[in-house]
Amino acid sequence: MNYIKHRNNIIIYTLLFLSFLISIYLWPKINLPYSNIHNVSGIYDNLKYSSYNDVVRYIFFIGFPILTFFISLIIFKKDNVINFSDLFKSNNEYFILEKGQKKIIFFSFILFGIYILIEFLSLDMPDMKIDRLHDGDYLTAAMNYFLTNKIWSSSYAVHGASMSLYPNLMWKIFNVESIGAYRLFPVFMNILVKFFSLYFVFQLTKIVSIKNSFKIVFFILFSFLILSMSDFDILVGGYNLISFRDIYLIFFLILLFNIIILEKSNYFNILLISVIPSITMLLHTDIGIYLNFTLIFLIIYLYIFKKDKYFLMILTVITFWSIILIYLGLNDFKLFFKNILILSSSIDYLMGNVYPDPFFDTSGSKHSSRATKGLVLQLIACLLITYKVLIKNNNFENKKKIFFIFLFILSFIFYRNALGRSDSFHIRMSSDLPILIISFFTLEYLLMHIEKLSIFFKDKKINYIFLLTFIFAIFLLSFSKFNYSNIKNVQSRYSKFVNYEDNFFMHKDTINLINYLKVETKNEQCIENFTYNLAIPFFLEKISCTPYYSSWLASPTILQLDYIKRLEITKPNYIIYKSDKYLVDNLQVYERLELVNNYIITNYNFHINIDNYLIYKLIKKN
Question: For the whole model, what pTM was predicted?
Answer without folding.
Answer: 0.93
